[in-house]
Amino acid sequence: MNRRDIAIDDFCYDPAQLRDHWLALFAGDFGSGSYNAMTISWGSYGQIWNKMFFQVLVRPTRYTFEFMEKYDTFTLNAFGPKYKEALSILGSKSGRDGDKIALSGLSPMASRKVAAPCFREAKLVIECRKMYWQDIDSAHFLDGTIEDNYAKKDYHRAYFGEIVHIGEA
Q: With a threshold of 0.85, does the pTM exceed it?
């Protein structure tokens, strides 16, 4: 799919959209065929260390975690409402148990600037290079209700990815 490049300085994303739109996180290396994807709904976007970034959170129990650890890049893929079922599959199935990407009906393709794949059907692709990670530490929760999100004590790892390319369908 041809996407129109968006200059990073011209890009504006309302993080409140994360509440209403599902994004697919894609990690790995397209060229080697080693990759996995998952649906995400938690994250943040902004500027840190003079760089524009997206922060994504991945639990260590997720198969995608292995790819986030092994590879330096990832993509965020935004979809229109007609792909809700496909994203539900990416969020509820494990790539350890089978080819959930094929089951979703979505098509992996090479990204423009990073090794991690993107999805052909995505209306927006944000390509990122990891620049920092931090494990969530429950000892730092100031709001006790946050712990309710961790019944299994499987605290996320937060990854900050510098945005290196943005493309819009």
A: yes
